Amino acid sequence: MDPIERLGSMFERFPGIGPRQAGRFVQFLLRSSPSYRRELVDALQQLGGSVTQCTRCMRFHTGRGGICGICGNTQRDARFLAIVASDVDVSALERSGTYRGYYFVLGGTISLASEKTSNLRLSELLLHIGDTAYPYTEAILAFPANPEGDATATRVREELADIAAARDIKVTALGRGLSTGSELEYADPDTIQSAFESRR
Ligand SMILES: [Zn+2]
Fold this sequence. Notes:
Elements: H1 3-11, H2 19-31, H3 34-50, E1 52-53, E2 60-61, E3 80-84, H4 87-96, E4 102-105, H5 122-130, E5 138-142, H6 147-167, E6 170-173, H7 189-197
Helix pairs in contact: 1-2, 4-7, 5-6
The structure holds zinc ion.
């Protein structure tokens, strides 16, 4: 296969990327410097070698085995668990500097077309919330402000209802400081802060 077509077809497999955007990525790489391309190849190779999944929050990290730097940090506020859709949402909340609790990465949102939940770590989440080693008093649903995020929040609330009641953990959701349709990863720190303050 022609290398340009090959790379384009690989980009098309990325979430949310169609043939047009994949083509633009390839054009960008064709125009970029050899040193940038080497850096990209190097970053991709390192992904294979040193990335592991945190056994507590489920996000991928480059530390050595076990739990990630956030979960291993005992200075964080142990009362709060933010449940997010994906790893990039953890990065967005960390960048905002607003939130100091711990995280659980669900691994996606419910697709409204299929209503499938098999890709979500719901059973892992239940085990996590049920684990009395974690002294949570509040679980904060921090999903994107779109129909998929809302459907996921509804489903997670249902799943958590019994165990949260049994453990006296309040389940809240981020307020609509986030404008409708916005993804956490693109929200600015002030917006994220107001979404946290208006959670209910
Ligand atoms: Zn972790």
